[in-house]
Amino acid sequence: MAAEVVAALDVGMTVEQIKASQIGMKALGAGIAVGLTGIGAGVAEMAIGSAAVGATAENKDMFGLALLFTVIPETIVIFGLVVALLLLFV
Amino acid sequence: MLKAKQMSRLLIAGSRDQMAPVIAELYRHNLFHIEEYVDAGAEGYEGFKIGTPLSGASEKSADLIKIRAIANTIAIRADDVDVGPSCSRDELQIKIERELPLLEREVEELTVRRSRFEARVKELDQKIIEITPFSDIPVDMNLYHGYKRFTTIAGYVSREVNLNIPHEMHFSKGKDKNFLVVVFPTEQKSEVDKALAEAGFQPVPVPDESGSARGRIEFYSGETAALNKEIQEINKQLENVKQKHAAFLVACEELLKAEVDQTEAPLRFATTKQTFVAEGWVPSDKVAVITNSLVYMTDGKIFVTVVPTDLEHDPVPVEYNNPDFAKPTQVLMDVYSRPKYTELDPTLMISIVFPIFFGLILGDVGYGLILLVMAYGLRRFLKGEEGRMLLDVLRNASISSIFFGIVFSEFLGFAIPGWNPILYSRHLMSEHGGHGPNIPELLVVSVWIGIIHLTLGRILGIINHAQQDHGHHRTQAIMSNFGWIAVMWGILIAIWSTVMMPLMPDLIGLPVVMAVLGVGFNLNVGHFVGAALLLMGIIFIARESVLEVIELPSIVSHVLSYSRLVAVGLSSVAIAMVVNFLSITMFIEPQLENLSVVGVIIILFGIVVFVIGHALNTALGILGGGLHSIRLHYVEFFTKFYKGGGKKYVPFGMKRRFTEE
Predict the structure, then answer these.
(1) What is the pTM of this model?
(2) Does residue B290 sit in helix, strand or coil?
(3) What number is the ipTM of this complex?
């Protein structure tokens, strides 16, 4: 506790303020994790998606496989989501 | 189970006059997968040629084409027609001779008339488009043409134009562009063109009409309306034809297809002038049935024998062999690839694991019930076999979803009142009853599922290689698969010896072997065992293919990929919670306290938000739950052992739905 108070005095904030800003930082981190990985997954899915639509237009039987290829990069955003969940709840 | 149905290669030989009864009998059994004869001078087939169709083939094909053309015009598909009382062959034959030409003429007349009307409507629409710009100019359209010395031009300009020559001009201001009609002496055309070009002139053709523009537009619109009415009338008549003759048409199609298939079958046989030879595949347990019935039908005048199968080179067709509850899952296997004949068929495993994954992701009683209703409700619209199988998969998944909904205590994102989650909670907010979410535990459980699933995949890989490969390569492939398991468990043991995690074994307490000086970190027995396993695994993998070693990080990413079971599930819980919060806490509850007229509207709005939100989340739930579960199979599980690429077993014959034998 003493160390926290000293640290608080150093930056001119109360312990409550520091705790609140820590929660805020966690939320920001979680948001960034999901947001950036979302962009990453989107960029990756862009090319696959257009190719998948083309393939499906030529051959309707490709639909199942094409849909599957399209969701493969979704792993990236899921890792982001997992990181966000760990930040927020652990 | 876990294996394709066992097939035997059957060879049928006989004199040519026995061909027709043999074909009929094979078609009736619907079991014989014909191995098509290719005229490539194969050993033992010298002097054989591809057969010629039986008599009557071309007439029947012509009839079949007629029926398909009609069915196409009135948009009938056999899958959309309910199975009624089936017709006998003779009845249909008579009907085909009598009714088919009449029906063909009727449909053709109607469609020809319809396309003539449609063409006329298009023509009139074009005329209306051409006249419309002139409708603001109060001049009889007769006055636009018929001059020798004068020229009329019309078009759009960006601003008003002043001409220094004798002319008559009508100018109408519009919103974006202005319309103008000018009549001027032909010899001064160049000056007019110049002046107009400066005003950004875009010409439009002057229509060859008489009378007022508005009057003409009204006249043509009336005509199109009348024509459209006629077209509707024709469509109604075609619909009547469809209602009346649908059963007849699909039955005819079936009958004729069966006959055409049979008359054309000799094209797939090897024949000489006097004899024929047919080769093909039959499920091994049916060989006796087919042989006996063929011999009986031909009074013993043919020769039937089983030819030994060469598993490595023969393209054995693959028919699934699964218990009934696993059959719908075959559709998911065919999307990826049918297993090879010598390979393990993982359908049974998917049929069990897929619903569990789906339930883990979409564990919600409410959504589960909605999907269950959908799985039964959509049966009315999806009548094809594949559609039915998909709906069965959805049904199994939704039952699992309800089960896990009870486990997680969730109903449309709410906690089930008076019922606490068994084991772990996914409720993101604790004020809705129960405790907060057990995210770390849930994540570890999902990782455990991954570890077990992937280990199972590698074990299946070992079995596949043991069955398919030979000699040195077989040993290496088996060792390599074992190496992958060793690397994974080696890493796990090393991690367990280093950090403590919930629901994972704690190996930190193992006896210390060596202390790393200066860091305060002790290497215990676990670390050494882990490292030994890791090293051994890498050696085994590298012995099969050194390049595989760069794939090692995929062990970590594939195991962590299973955390989607929790992550995607939690995102759907979060969406449901947000929808509930928006609609109930923000819109409905505050208004219920003191009702007013405005309040009722807001409550109605809240209900709309609730319904749309949950409909959206259900759709996302199917996509998320279904796609991610199947993806875990296709990408993470199958890559460990499954190759696929088997040939589909297509027996000669058909499942009759509308006709009798």
Answers:
(1) 0.79
(2) helix
(3) 0.79
